Amino acid sequence: MIDNARLYAEPFARRLRGHADIKDVTLCALRDINDHTHPEARRYDAALINASAPNVEQVISSLSKVPLAVIALGVDETENRVIGLAESGAAGYVPLSGDIDDVVRSARAAVRKEMHCSPDLAFQLWQHIGLMAAQAPEQKPAVHLTRREREVLSLISLGASNQQISRELFIELRTVKNHVHNILRKLGAKRRGEAAARAHELVGWSAVTPSDAPGRRSRSPGRQGA
């Protein structure tokens, strides 16, 4: 059986081999390229893939572990098409109207980690990045609470007063007040109850009972000491 795809690609490969800027060209099966340990995958700088091939974006994604710059050939130069290829991992593309020189320029640019495209498409890609950033959920800042601050916050969530926290943790009242002040400041909270809610939201903190941590008395903070 004649491999029509290979016969079709041979003239293209011969034209690339004759280009002054190309050292070598070979035709590889996808299974060989996809194996990053295969000699052919490690020998070359770029992989050229027909953009009209079935499931081409999935194919490009499957090459993410291969040390090759993937170039999609024969691309309909629309924003959605190019963005889809870029999201799948393509390092460059050649439009339907491109020629052998465009293939070489795109491959060389991709190897240098550059992008060879029209100014109009570059602007569209830039706008797409801005749109994606605007739609991305706001990242909450990291909050760091010391071990003692977490202990104080645990007791706050259980309804303990500063005096009760002082007795539970064997620390002075003014030290408790300083911890509470720092907790409210770090969590951006104005009240004690809001601090516990903010802690759970920002740092995944959840309350523990006094007996869950070393150095605490095993009674409830609501009980009065002797």
TrEMBL record:
<dbReference type="InterPro" id="IPR000792">
    <property type="entry name" value="Tscrpt_reg_LuxR_C"/>
</dbReference>
<protein>
    <submittedName>
        <fullName>Response regulator transcription factor</fullName>
    </submittedName>
</protein>
<dbReference type="Pfam" id="PF00196">
    <property type="entry name" value="GerE"/>
</dbReference>
<feature type="region of interest" description="Disordered">
    <location>
        <begin position="206"/>
        <end position="226"/>
    </location>
</feature>
<dbReference type="InterPro" id="IPR016032">
    <property type="entry name" value="Sig_transdc_resp-reg_C-effctor"/>
</dbReference>
<feature type="domain" description="HTH luxR-type">
    <location>
        <begin position="138"/>
        <end position="203"/>
    </location>
</feature>
<keyword id="KW-0804">Transcription</keyword>
<keyword id="KW-0805">Transcription regulation</keyword>
<keyword id="KW-0238">DNA-binding</keyword>
